[in-house]
Design goal:
With 124 residues, this protein is mainly beta. It has one helix spanning 3-8, and strands at residues 17-24, 27-31, 36-40, 49-52, 55-62, 65-71, 79-89, 93-99, 104-110, 113-123. The chain has 1 helix and 10 strands, in the order H-E-E-E-E-E-E-E-E-E-E. Strand 5 (55-62) and strand 6 form a beta hairpin.
């Protein structure tokens, strides 16, 4: 047998990964254990435990298979826990207004306060 044929015979089997879609501050995030997300700021110190109870969907994915285990009203009991890493600010957004021929200009900046969270577990 050639070396190429032997290497082609090996098959890698992927373990199913758990994921969830959570809603916080009116936005939705698809998370799995180890995912780092940046959400609108909430109370807490770095190192605090965070629990997301508003879970819209949860399931497992592995390879080409997708199994949805909880969806909509049936997500009772699914919780997503994470750890608060840092309280930061987003990049600056410049707001510039101008009226032509009116001599009116206004420049304003804004930096949104953010909380960075690392997801530790998704319990189904």
């Amino acid at each position: 047998m050639a070396k190429n044929q032997k290497a082609a015979a090996e098959v890698v089997v992927e373990e199913p990964k758990v994921f969830a879609v959570v809603r916080t501050a009116g936005k939705q995030y698809r998370v799995s254990p180890g995912t780092k997300i940046s959400v609108d700021q909430f109370e807490g110190q770095p190192g605090d435990k965070v629990t997301f109870s508003d879970v819209l969907m949860a399931g497992k994915t592995g390879g080409s298979d997708l199994k949805i285990l909880a969806k909509g009203e049936k997500t009772l009991g699914v919780t997503v826990t994470g750890r608060l890493v840092a309280q930061t600010k987003d990049k600056k957004v410049i707001i510039f207004k101008k009226r032509l021929k009116g001599g009116y200009t206004k420049k304003q900046g804004h930096r949104q306060a953010k909380s960075e969270v690392v997801i530790e577990s998704v319990s189904l």
